[in-house]
Amino acid sequence: MKLVNCPVCGSRCSADIEKCPECGFEIKQYFEQKSDSKNNKKAPFLLIGCAFLAILVAFLVINIIFRNISELANHAENAEPLDEIFSETNMVQEDISTSEVSTAEASTSDIDVSGVYSGDDHEILVLSPDGLAYYYCTEIAFTELECPWYIKDDKVYIEFARLHCIVTANVDKKELLFKSDSANWNTELFSRLDVEPEQYLTKALSTHDSNATLNSDGTLTYKLDGISYTLPKTFIDFEDASDNQSNWSAFVDEDVQSDFVSAVLFYKSLGALPKESSVSDNATDFASRFLTEASVTSCKATTVAGHPGYLCEVTGYLNQGFSALQNYKVSGYITIFNNESTHNNNYVMLVQNSDRSTDNSSIFGEILKSAR
Q1: Are 266 and 290 in contact (CB under 8 A)?
Q2: Per-residue pLDDT tens for 252-306?
Q3: Where in the chain do CATH 3.40.1000.10 domains reside?
Q4: Which fold does the domain 103-201 belong to in CATH?
Q5: Are the C-beta atoms of residues 109 and 103 closer than 8 Å to each other?
């Protein structure tokens, strides 16, 4: 019980009684009014404090927004277009084609070899009358679509892009024994079937990767984080651990004959675009998922599919995730860009033999420019 002194007579009494027992002064009402008066004096100070705190928070938020806008403006000002970055390398992968002669002009035989053929291992080879060949292998990875074929000096020639080779066979109405001087092709006999090419040209093909599509022209379309990329027909979708993953994938271009390998890797993760000072470390962390002794240098500001990002050079060795290709020394590029609609950082990396025995650096530029 709280005791107080009566402000009139000074008697000691409880603060909860209505009136002073000695003089009748209204004790309870007096002290309630006094308490309200103190609280009213404190209220303005509380309001001032809250207002100051709100202003401070607003200032910090505006400062962060302004700093981000300033960083994006600086990035945009310093961004180098992909065309300029890859034109500096002057590295253009040449087509394996050694002939521009059409089927009609090159033919020296009256035998019509266009049609459908079955191979030794039940592969299907279609030689379309329009000069394009289609090789349907039991392994999806080695399927070849829209490859040029022609007849020259009584020999049939097919230019296989994915296998990096040209195969030839003597003209025959019923059988074609295709040979090549490339280790990528084993001699194989194809026997003609009584089937129309159209029955196979409309066949829908799939890939191992749930996010990839094999197109009728042999190119691969891969989609990640709502962005689509087109890979040249030389790249193959081998069956691997990434096939059922939603955040990363890998595609390989390999030429056994030239001891050449090239790999394109995609990855996404939640986050903001790294600052210029930390781009190299960020890119190294990503590269280390696929390479041992990864080293990143020469990062440049650029844009991919309209999103701000960076492109860096990288070297290292393929890790155990690449099975038989493990320990290949490779070099190439990494790009990091922030997809502003999903708030994800997207990573795309192309690496190839460090000796660049077959250089397709320009193809990486084309892959990035195809991003939509």
Answers
A1: no
A2: 998 888 888 889 999 999 988 888 889 999 999 999 999 999 999 999 999 999 9
A3: 206-369
A4: Lipocalin (2.40.128)
A5: no
